[in-house]
Amino acid sequence: MEEKDIAISVKNLTKDYGKGRGIFDVSFDVPRGCVFGYCGTNGSGKTTTLRHIMGFIKPDSGSVTVNGLDSLKDSDEIKKFIGYLPGEIAFPAVANGSEFLKIQAEMINMTDFAKAERLINSFQLDPTANVKRMSKGMKQKTALVAAFMHSPDIIILDEPTTGLDPLMREVFVNLIKEEKARGATIIMSNHMFDELEETCDKVAFIKNGRIVDIVDLNEMHNRPYREFIIEFGNVDDYEKVKEQSAQFVLKTDDAHLTLNIKVDLAKANAAAEYLSTVEIKSFKEKQYTLETYFMEEIGGKEDGTNN
Fold first, then answer.
1. How far, in Å, CA of 184 to CA of 177, rounded?
2. Whole-angstrom Cα distance, residue 80 to residue 279?
3. Which pLDDT belongs to residue 41?
4. Among the residues of 152-297, which ranges form H helices?
5. What count of other Cβ atoms lies within 10 Å of the Cβ of residue 3?
6. pLDDT of residue 290
7. For the domain that residue 55 is a member of, what is the CATH number?
8. Stated pTM of the model
9. Structure confidence by residue, pLDDT tens digits, 107-165
10. Mind listing the pLDDT tens digit for each residue in 44-60?
């Protein structure tokens, strides 16, 4: 991929806070127009990485560029085309949400409030509410409006759905899809597998401050094989298939005459023809999700290896 096609580039980024805390040799690229998820437990290094991208923290080593600009040296210039949602929202001394949004708009020379009004309506937000009395969800929605209202080229979101109810989470997911269609580049930390899978093109997993894997969602969803769960009608057919297909059997359940079988899609017709010769009680495909991928491929990894 050429440099002009990369919106955010993180190279060998390290910030060591001591006692194993921080981020260590973190590297990844976010292509233009990509929705890039950043997944990990609390304390894994997600927020530290995003704050480096914003130019808020000086690394011990490594670098970050945003649209080819150095995140630290050119932070003022970068902030002109970025929408940012911090993990911890702290409003300035303003009376209400409307005043906060007006100040934010003035800082970025925004004069058209049409999108802001649309977002306020979508999130069912009352911007006239006193910011000191706002609930966590209200504060989150106000900050989300501020991050998206000027249609920035790049959007950085730290746990964006914290405090949102299920309905508002759905509004957020739809918003991400709209922004992606617009061509925005988005990087967001999140620990909600379903939200990441529904919105992202790629997801990086960070553990103990190190990247342990980066998965391409398109490749994951288009694996050349599928896993099926087959329950047999009698023990003879169960034992027959278990023995003759041993190399494809992932899991057996003798008590319930059930096999989990991995089938190469190129050989799916032959497999179906073979299974038509035995008595099958039930047959279903096992759904392979991002959470499944994490549990099977990443859950046990301790040491980070950037991909």
1. 10
2. 65
3. 86
4. 166-182, 193-199, 217-221, 235-244, 268-275, 290-293
5. 9
6. 93
7. 3.40.50.300
8. 0.87
9. 989 999 999 999 999 999 999 999 889 999 999 999 999 999 999 999 999 999 999 99
10. 999 999 999 999 999 99
Q: What angle do CA 135, 138, 143 make, to 5 degrees?
A: 125
Q: Which of 7, 52, 1 is nearest to 206 (CA)?
A: 52
Statement to judge: residues 238 and 208 lie in one domain: no
DSSP lists the bridge partners of residue 154 as: 82, 185
| Cβ atoms < 10 Å from Cβ of 305 | 10
Tokens (6 digits) for 63: 């670098």
By CB atoms closer than 10 A (0-12, 13-18, 19+), residue 131 is buried
Given phi > 0 = left and psi -120 to 50 = alpha, else beta, which region is 81?
Answer: alpha
Q: Could you say which of 178, 200, 220 is where a domain stops?
A: 220
Last residue of a domain, one of 220, 242, 272: 220
Q: Cβ distance 261 to 228 under 8 Å?
A: yes
Structural domain containing residue 160: 3-220
Q: What is the mean pLDDT of the chain?
A: 93
Cα–Cα distances in Å, from 21 out to 123, 205, 250?
36, 16, 38
Q: Is residue 292 part of a domain?
A: no
Largest interatomic CA distance in the chain = 75
61 with 121, same domain?
Answer: yes
